[in-house]
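pinging the channel bc i need a second pair of eyes. not urgent but kinda urgent?? the chain im working w is below, pasted from the shared doc
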Amino acid sequence: MRCDRRPLGVLAAVTKGLFILWAVPGQGGRPPHPPTLQQIQALVRHMAEDAQELFAFYEEDQRLAINHLCRTNRPPEWLRGPVMGPGGLQGLRGTMVRMAQALQDITRHQRDLNPPGAEILRRLASTHLKVRGLLSNLDGLFPAPSLPPGRRPPPGPTAPTKVFRQKLEGCRILWSYARFMAKLSAQLEARSRRARREKRRPRRGSRLPVCS
């Protein structure tokens, strides 16, 4: 039997790549088959890890780690809890649409500050792809008529005095997003554990057969 001698890091990267290919919309804009809740949970868990890694890299890369400037306790209203509201997973769609737009805004700003192919741009693009993947899978679970995206006016030139403010705002959004996804992943895991316990619990009224 042959052993795969590739480093574990390489194998993990390949696995994550295949995982995201599963999550990305197909040619029709939605997955060919509705995803299972287990698949959604696995994707959310992966996104929570990715969100924390992106925030840590952004905070360090933008030199904002001093005094924990980004780690605000006042997230944007659309990233506040409780994560699982009355609509459950269906209520996530609006949050993920807003997050996809926020990532585009952060990326646009970083393109003005970094050369093409910079690591920060690559990481932002990867996270944006995952958010789109979750949106696609939510559409698979809860089909809804797609609305045309609204047009936004192109941003004007950024004044030098606004550069730091935009960096800080982007960093705080990524921090709030990382906390949001961590809470969401924990809630889905707790829900899954409860469902497994309920499945193992004997139903009321069921008794073992009595042998004569």
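so Residues 1-6, 8-15, 153-160 have pLDDT under 50 and may be disordered. and The first helix runs from residue 8 to 23. — does that match what u expected or am i reading it wrong
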